[in-house]
Amino acid sequence: MAVNTSKEAFINHYKDTVYVRSDAQLEREKWLVPNAIPVNRWVLPFAAFFIQICCGSLYAWSGYNAPIEAAIYGMNNGVDRGVASITFYIAVAFFGCAAAAFGPWMERKGPFLGCMVGTTMFFVGNLLSALGVQVGQIALVYIGYGILGGAGLGIAYISPVSPLQKWFPEYRGLAAGFAVCGFGGGSIIAPFTQKYLIGLDYQLDTVKNISLGVPLAFVILGCIYFTIMSIGSLVLRMPPPGYEVKGIKIDTVKGAETLHQDIVIHAEEDVADFSTGAEAKVAAPAQNTTDFTTYFKMTLWESIMSTEFRLMYVMFIGAQVTGLMIMSKIQGIVQTQFGKTGNEPININAILGTFNLLGRLMVPFLSDWLGNRKLFFIISCTVQIVMLGFIPYSIWGQYYWAFLVEVFSIAFFYGAGFGLIPAFLSDQFGSKNIGPTHGIILTAWAMTGVFGGLLFTAVYNTGYNAHYYILEGATKKTWNPADFRFHAYDINFQWILGFVFMGLATACMIPSSLRDRRLPKAEGESFRFRFGPRLVRVFGTKPVVVSKEQEDKEWAAYIAGIAQAQNEASRESVSVAVN
């Protein structure tokens, strides 16, 4: 009984995403400043940008590791104990889980409340972390920044994405890019603000700076983030009921808004109906009143249980794993593999953040222009495969400039993936479902960050012995660790490459057009895919290429059939009302 009740509650949580507003609330939401400045949808992207800058400070956590460990455990000659860094993995895990769990709740309660809840949790997390460092208890840092802060960031991250997808249905890529590009900006700014506030006293350096220490840095930055995110949340709101732009509503699946153009009259032509194997004559309805948006819209439960969603989940893992691993380890790679010291590793990290930001903004905009998100994920995975394949050779040969080109390219497409995925989800399932679907997709990133990061570290730490036995020979008693230096990351690059190939293959399999997803299957058809512009049906083990003319006729027959059925139902309802 308890299991059934829990299952029913879980299903209802993801089925119910209706946002109910009173007339008074709708009237208030018309104004940015009551009775003075009306709301303009172009204000929302800027509010989202500043909220995401604060959320992006998560990427700068590595700047806290050494100071926290020095404050709690004392100096360790600059050696990372690997204790404070666990906080980042905890935060990433709770970031993804909270985004997935609170996505439907945020849709029901609205983005303002969602963002404020996330902002408050992140603020409390910073204060609790400050207390943990002050009293020397790392567990409080894990709970504060890791659990509360990570979960708060996850909720705050998805809160601007959902309304922007609804306010800009005709520019879903641009809206997604603006909604998340600030996250990349946060990774550029936060390392310098942290370093400036914490100071270098924990390293016994004589550099003169503010030197407030770790606890006060948490308090000050926490207050700044809370203020910025709270002001930004005041701007966030959903569009009014019935809102649409160019015939696109919040529940419109891409392609449904133009389907009336696909109704072709084949007056006396025989059209093969592959779904039944029969010949069918298609007549256009006398008056087209078909609402294709309503016919093809999907519920949240249908969306997350669909084959396309599962494929997109796997694709996102493959498309993001390289950038996540590179960005989290770049300073160490630059130091150990190329011998760069001083501010060079920090500067490279900041430049990587810049490319991450540019990818989040530019590629989604280009996807709007070309009208194809799937293509850019395919390009992303392909470029990453090439760059990842060349990185070991750049390290072996000490080609620093080539290495930088490779990692900057990876960072660019890493950011592009985050900018593309909200728009891609809206195209596939409608922007009405974007909050929960985006939240669930982010668990792929969180899972990759946690398990991928642990695997990366474990492989790296055991790499010396493994490499010795493989390349030096088991009979050799001694070896020079310097011989291993330029091969320290070889095995990690290899397993990451396998995941990117998986992402590429999965991206190619996603049916991204409405026609590919909803065109009825032919009798005996087991699978279908696109080979260039042509539809290929697989019957058993036999592929059959469908001509464009036949595909167009078949699609027209399907659409005209829907239109005719809806118009007949409409006439019947009118007739009943009259009688």
Q: Going across the major beta sheet, what is the strand order?
A: 7-8-9
Distance between the first and last residues' Cα: 49 Å
Low-confidence parts: 204-210, 264-287, 468-481
Largest sheet: 3 strands, antiparallel
- Record field, number of beta strands: 9
The helix count comes to 20
Element-level helix/strand string: HHEEHHHHHHHEEEEHHHHHHHHHHEEEH
Mean pLDDT: 82
Helix content: 55-70%
Oligomer: single chain
- Based on CA inertia axes, which overall geometry fits? globular
Structural class: mainly alpha
User: Which band does the percent of strand residues land in?
Assistant: 5-15%
What is the C-alpha radius of gyration, as a whole number of Å? Answer: 27 Å
Architecture overview:
The radius of gyration is 27 Å and the shape is globular. It has helices spanning 2-15, 23-28, 44-55, 62-73, 86-109, 111-135, 138-167, 172-198, 214-235, 292-296, 300-304, 307-338, 344-370, 373-396, 400-429, 434-461, 463-472, 490-509, 514-518, 548-578, and strands at 31-33, 37-38, 244-245, 248-249, 270-273, 278-281, 527-531, 534-539, 542-546. The strands form four sheets. A three-stranded antiparallel beta sheet has the order 7-8-9. It has a two-stranded antiparallel sheet with strand order 1-2. Residues 204-210, 264-287 and 468-481 have low confidence and may be disordered. It has 579 residues and is mainly α.
